[in-house]
Amino acid sequence: MSLKSSLSIAAQGMSAASDRLQIYANNIANLGTPNYVRKVPVLSENQDVSFDDMISQMRGGVLKSGLSASPGGVVLNGSVEDPTPGKKIYMPSHPEADKNGYLTLSNVNPMADMADATLASRVYEANLAVIGIVKAMANRALEIGRGQ
Fold first, then answer.
1. Percent of the chain with pLDDT over 90
2. The whole model's pTM is what?
3. Helix (DSSP H) and strand (DSSP E) numbers for the chain
């Protein structure tokens, strides 16, 4: 794997972690909002393969051992609604109550979202550390190339 690929994968991981954090923050912010449905981020493997990447792999002799169809990385494919039902309370005077007078409260679990946000934050930090390591490797390679 090249240094460029490593940086790209780490950057994708940071972007996905940042997007996840935004979703969790939005959930927590809407904890008290009636009828709000908790969002859960959906991640998947990056399946983008550019023509340039394909040619580079072929030049590197990877074709003999099997061509990798995926350069790696992760992407956020949006979010899905949590199917857990929110608690219903009888409040016929509330403007958002249903026809029977029940108000559906948010189904956000603040403890779960805080734990998920902490995990996403750690993922962001880990990818940032990878970028630092790749940068140090590139600098060391340049020093070796200069003969120092």
1. 65
2. 0.77
3. 4, 4
